[in-house]
Q: What sequence folds into this?
């Protein structure tokens, strides 16, 4: 079977050469392996790996932007370690979860890049001719966006924590005093990353063009925050805060860090604000999951 | 290898597949029909990418409805339309699709290299697919269909877009693949391609089965004589009917069913001579699948 057979009749690119077909008798994974392959391939694409240098610029620049404040704060803490300014807390771990719009920009650029070309270039029939379901596809794509956003959101937290610990007078004491950060920070970042990943991929699944999807995502963020501000009016706090789609995961973050909605937030002081924030979070993420599963249900239609 | 039982697929009021019951054996099989005959829909049903409106589909004795994902692990598929990511190299595309079929990453890259070599894209495999000609994209699509070494490979119009020499080479390759342990089902509307590359043929027309069987068997229509005259075919048919021969007429062609071929030929020769008809064709065997298709398709 693997024997070489007749030589091509003529040379040149684009000719079909019958050089013999070789069977494959190595290991084969099943559905899980397929999902893992799609997940890892999507992460590679999101990070620009195996792509031109132009495709690498955006993700790594954004990572640098998200990590820069942490590096600066650690640097300032080091310089001021023996001065009264060392007691000043420039930024908290809670603040850092929502500090960077770089994550927003990353999702706006990456989610459409992972989703839209495959729909526009009609690659989906090839993907779904493999042992995958529509749900598997959604899991791999949204999971890839989640993983990268989580990494980009959590690594600066690690940098901040380790840096603060090393700069402090007593590293072990710092670790003991801030032990709760070790679960609060990753959980909060995971909540934010899940929200952004589902929202970004759901919006991208509704568009064929990357630019349209990115604009729709950022437009939703801008419009909802504007509407929220209008609804709040002169009062800085109220239920109108829940209209701001990007505010919702940050309210849930507060529940993780503080156990209640922060008084310094637009939802602070609102009765049952925490319950409402969680309900809104679940409603948005649930709606995104429904949209995604419906969009890729065609695979078995 | 592939079997359908009273298979029907409707999209609203449009019936794409209509009560199709057919057994498709292993080997090289041509799925023939005009555009809209239901070939691509049948492929989608075989892959479990579409649900039958009625009836059932089996691949290798396993119901597609019960395990569509498992079935897809055994099938390679080459769609007809453009479906390749244009910004990736052919090697990346084929390797990625190999991984999606469950092959480990390193082995998938090696298989991708082998398959691109097989289809003649060894030198171009690191170029983005977007820079490829139509023929090169067809070859990339074939390579990805083969990369996971499927038991069955479904090729939807594989010669579409190829120049004559590329078409010849593609058909040679299809014929050779089917000669190995792999089964190949090739859809096409070019009957000559099937006649050349396939051992079996399944003909569809408007979603219905026209005929299925061995290519050689279909070409050998023992007991049937075809007569084509340039004029007055109706008079010939009447005369042959009067002799007790069963006849049907289509245009200038008369088809005569004769249990004894020699006696039938003698009778036809005599009548044509007596009527002084201009004889065009007198044959006991169909000479091409086009003729089989025309002959069998209901009018």
A:
């Amino acid at each position: 079977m693997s024997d070489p057979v007749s030589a091509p009749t003529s040379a040149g690119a684009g000719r079909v050469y019958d050089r013999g077909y070789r069977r494959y008798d190595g290991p084969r994974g099943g559905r899980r392996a397929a999902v893992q392959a799609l997940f890892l391939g999507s992460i590679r694409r999101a990070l620009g790996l195996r792509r031109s240098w132009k495709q690498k610029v955006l993700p790594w620049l954004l990572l640098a932007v998200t990590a820069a404040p942490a590096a600066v704060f650690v640097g300032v803490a080091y310089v001021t370690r023996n001065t009264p300014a060392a007691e000043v807390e420039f930024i908290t771990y809670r603040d850092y979860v929502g500090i960077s719009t770089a994550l927003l920009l990353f999702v706006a650029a990456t989610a459409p890049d992972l989703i839209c070309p495959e729909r526009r270039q009609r690659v989906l029939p090839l993907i779904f001719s493999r042992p995958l379901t529509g749900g598997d596809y959604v899991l791999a794509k949204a999971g890839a966006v989640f993983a990268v956003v989580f990494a980009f959101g959590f690594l600066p937290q690690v940098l901040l924590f380790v840096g603060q610990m090393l700069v402090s007078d007593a590293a072990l004491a710092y670790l003991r005093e801030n032990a709760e950060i070790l679960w609060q920070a990753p959980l909060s970042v995971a909540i934010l990353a899940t929200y952004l990943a589902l929202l970004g991929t759901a919006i991208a699944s509704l568009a064929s063009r990357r630019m349209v999807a990115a604009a729709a995502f950022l437009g939703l963020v801008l419009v909802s925050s504007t509407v929220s501000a209008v609804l709040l009016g002169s009062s800085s706090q109220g239920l109108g805060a829940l209209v701001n789609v990007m505010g919702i995961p940050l309210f849930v973050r507060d529940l993780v860090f503080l156990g209640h909605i922060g008084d310094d937030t637009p939802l602070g002081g609102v009765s049952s604000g925490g319950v409402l924030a969680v309900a809104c979070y679940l409603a948005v993420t649930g709606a995104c999951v429904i949209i995604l599963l419906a969009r890729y249900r065609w695979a078995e239609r | 290898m592939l079997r359908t039982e009273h298979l029907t697929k409707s999209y609203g009021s449009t019936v794409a597949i209509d009560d199709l019951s057919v057994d498709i054996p292993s080997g090289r099989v041509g799925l023939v029909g005009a555009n809209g005959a239901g070939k691509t829909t049948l492929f989608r049903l075989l892959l479990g990418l579409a649900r039958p409106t009625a009836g059932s589909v089996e691949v290798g004795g396993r119901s597609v409805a019960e395990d569509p994902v498992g079935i897809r692990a055994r099938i390679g598929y080459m769609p007809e339309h453009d479906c390749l990511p244009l910004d990736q190299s052919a090697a990346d595309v084929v390797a990625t699709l190999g991984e999606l079929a469950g092959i480990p990453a390193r082995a998938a890259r090696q298989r991708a290299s082998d398959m691109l070599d097989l289809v003649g894209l060894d030198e171009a495999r690191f170029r983005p697919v977007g820079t490829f000609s139509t023929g090169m994209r067809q070859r990339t699509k074939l390579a990805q269909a083969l990369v996971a070494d499927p038991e069955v490979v479904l090729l939807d119009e594989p010669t579409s877009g190829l120049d004559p020499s590329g078409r010849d080479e593609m058909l040679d390759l299809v014929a050779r693949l089917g000669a190995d342990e792999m089964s190949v089902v090739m859809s096409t509307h070019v009957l000559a391609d099937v006649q050349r590359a396939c051992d079996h043929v399944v003909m569809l027309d408007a979603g219905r089965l026209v005929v299925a069987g061995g290519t050689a068997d279909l070409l050998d229509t023992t007991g049937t004589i075809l007569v084509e005259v340039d004029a007055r075919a109706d008079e010939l048919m009447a005369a042959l009917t009067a002799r007790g021969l069963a006849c049907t007429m289509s245009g200038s062609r008369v088809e005569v069913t004769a249990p004894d071929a020699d006696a039938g030929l003698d009778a036809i020769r005599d009548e044509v001579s007596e009527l002084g008809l201009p004889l065009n064709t007198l044959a006991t065997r169909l000479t091409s699948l086009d003729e089989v298709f025309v002959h069998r398709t209901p009018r």
